[in-house]
Specification:
The chain is built from five helices and eight strands. The chain is α+β, with helices and mostly antiparallel strands.
Length: 192
């Protein structure tokens, strides 16, 4: 049985379209769904990350982002999109070549349709430009279309950028601390 045959009826798949937007530093970007052939672009982006940014996203300290580590994550992202998982990329064009500068994931739980986890990753040189916030808003819109009412975000307790992003969503939320991690539950409105 292939993935399409197992697609549950309660998980609609809205058509995702690319949108252009401008960052706070006037960079022109495109937010678009991931494609299988994005593997090389993802690998290049992941290799540019600082170990601090890697740690904030994956809650896993690494002394160096090795080629193997970047390849494994790029493969997971490029080949892993399915009916429960949506991946958006923010890309920019530099000297006629597309570059990935941010990744946003929305993963719906298979057992509880109303809950999804959101994760964001922005390359260091493009952080603090509002790119993560722009992608988060796109994921929130998708989550509402999917019927998600609770968005879960797991981060480091001291990750102020994620806390600010959640506050800017202007939706009720609660936080739970566990060790050095913070789990945020944002309540989303029901879809119309």
């Amino acid at each position: 049985m292939n993935n399409d045959e197992r697609l549950p009826v309660n998980f609609p798949s809205p058509q995702l379209e690319a949108i252009s937007f401008q960052s706070q530093r006037a960079n022109i970007l495109t937010a678009r769904p991931i494609r299988e052939h994005d593997y090389t672009l993802l690998n290049e982006m992941l290799r540019q990350l600082s170990t601090a940014t890697w740690y904030k996203r994956f809650l896993m300290p690494v002394p160096v982002i090795s080629e193997e580590l970047a390849q494994r994550e790029a493969k997971r992202l490029a080949l892993g999109a399915n009916h429960l998982r949506t991946v958006l990329l923010a890309t920019t064009c530099v000297q006629g070549r597309e570059h990935v500068v941010a990744i946003a994931e929305l993963v719906r739980e298979s057992s509880v349709a109303a809950i999804a986890e959101m994760a964001l990753l922005v390359v260091d040189s493009y952080q603090r430009e509002g790119i993560g916030s722009a992608l988060a808003l796109q994921l929130v819109k998708l989550a509402i279309q999917y019927g998600v009412t609770t968005l879960r975000i797991v981060t480091l307790a001291h990750n102020e950028a994620v806390r600010r992003l959640v506050r800017n969503l202007q939706t009720p939320y609660t936080m739970e601390y566990s060790g050095g991690s913070l789990v945020i539950y944002a309540k989303l409105p029901m879809s119309a």
